[in-house]
Design goal:
alpha/beta, polyamine biosynthesis, 7-stranded mixed sheet, binds S-adenosylmethionine, single chain, Spermidine_synt_N_sf, 10 helices, 12 strands, about 30% helix, about 30% strand, Spermidine Synthase, Chain: A, domain 2, 2 domains
Length: about 290
């Protein structure tokens, strides 16, 4: 009998993958976690039935959420990662010997345990000595953190539902602004614009950030297993502009081999299609 995994991307759009084996299923106090082995995308992890990470396309997401800010300020030393339980964001950060320390605040230990067990190529740096892994609510952590501590905050979160809801709040972003250094940068996963659910979340997050940070932009990437395959990230900064202050030579001198990110693509990622630009300028979007 054929086994298929299906995720509802909207009321009238389903996304299905043929499954070889259902490897693991677990329930934590926060969410349900499943690990499936699929024919096309290798192993994938879902939280509450939604795709979080797959072996085949995770490189896109993790390249874009880490190397984009690092190419704008290559001198980043102290980083805070909120969420990121699969470990892919920390893996990319640890490729920079110049990064002195990463605090990673993940609310659900089950995600890290499952990542270590089933995704060794993604979770491989979770126990790096430069990483402090804390199982805590990110909203509480930033509230209790001191001012001006971090050069970079990466919000590698789930969608704004359940435990992830608070990570899209004004209170959370305001605390992030406070605990960032004077030239600090914040990057978040900023949902997408093709389906209503993610549209609303994308706009809300962007407008909240614009009320708190002087410099706020959106950039794009193609992630096939995320709703519509067109995904957005937010870039909020106290000082640096992601294009004017791009330090391409310095970043290329790191000599990192990356499968998705490069400094030419960096510029294109911030060059949004007209309907997306208009959407973040005036909140309206017209498809059909
Ligand atoms: N790339 C994925 C995406 O865009 O959907 C996200 C990957 S990562 C697995 C998301 C992580 O955020 C999960 O491990 C989840 O447990 C964590 N998370 C959700 N709410 C949180 C909170 N309030 N504090 C810290 N971590 C949280």
């Amino acid at each position: 009998m054929e086994l298929w995994y299906t995720e509802k991307h909207s009321d009238s759009v389903n996304f299905s993958l043929k499954v070889k084996e259902h490897l693991f299923s677990g329930q934590s106090e926060f969410q349900k976690l499943d690990v499936l082995d699929t024919y096309e995308y290798g192993k994938l992890m879902t939280l509450d039935g939604l795709v979080m990470v797959t072996e085949k396309d995770e490189f896109v997401y993790h390249d874009m959420i880490v190397h984009t800010p690092m190419a704008v300020n290559p001198n980043i030393k102290n980083v805070l990662v909120i969420g990121g339980g699969d470990g892919g964001t920390v893996r990319e950060l640890m490729r920079y010997e110049t990064i002195e320390h990463v605090d990673m605040v993940e609310i659900d230990k089950l995600v890290c345990d499952a990542a270590k067990e089933y995704f060794p190529t993604i979770s491989c740096e979770l126990e790096n000595p430069r990483v402090t892994l804390l199982y805590e609510d990110g909203v509480k952590f930033v509230k209790e953190s001191p001012d001006n501590k971090y050069d970079l905050i990466i919000i590698d979160s789930t969608d704004p539902i359940g435990p992830g809801e608070g990570l899209f709040s004004t209170e959370f972003y305001t605390n992030c602004h406070r605990i960032l250094a004077e030239d600090g940068i914040l990057v978040n996963q900023n949902e997408s614009v093709f389906y209503e659910d993610t549209q609303e979340a994308a706009l809300k997050a962007n407008s909240k950030l614009k009320k708190i940070f002087p410099i706020v932009h959106v950039y794009q990437a193609n992630i096939p297993t995320y709703p519509s395959g067109y995904w957005l990230f937010g870039f909020a900064s106290k000082k640096y502009d992601p294009i004017k202050d791009l330090q391409a030579d310095k970043w290329n001198n790191f000599g990192l081999k990356t499968k998705y990110y490069n400094t030419d693509l960096h510029i294109g990622a911030f060059a949004l299609p007209s309907f997306v630009k208009e959407f973040f300028e005036n909140g309206t979007i017209q498809f059909l």
